[in-house]
Design a protein that fits this description.
The chain is mainly α and about 80 residues long. The chain is built from 4 helices and 2 strands, in the order αααββα. The longest helix is centred in the last third of the chain and has 13 residues.
Length: about 80
């Protein structure tokens, strides 16, 4: 699982004009840790989405969150 999680994290961190490289430098390895916590937990998990980026040009809302959140919820439920 670790290898797949690292591949996903690398794909998400790839620069495509979002300017988020500094975030992924700090958060590297966080996805694997989060996966381990979810797998080891017997608690319910909440999938939350939606944020506003006021400093973007132009300011914008998240657009892929609801669909991504739905996919994540389906996978977590399986």
């Amino acid at each position: 699982m670790e290898h797949v999680v690292h591949q996903i994290e690398a794909a998400v961190a790839r620069e495509v004009g979002r300017g988020i490289e500094p975030l992924f430098g700090v958060a590297a390895g966080g996805l694997a840790k989060a996966c381990r916590v979810i797998l080891d937990s017997s608690s319910d998990v909440a999938v939350v989405t939606g944020f506003y980026v006021p400093l973007a040009t132009p300011a914008a809302c998240e657009t892929d969150g609801p669909v991504g959140a739905r996919h994540l919820a389906v996978v977590l439920k399986a």
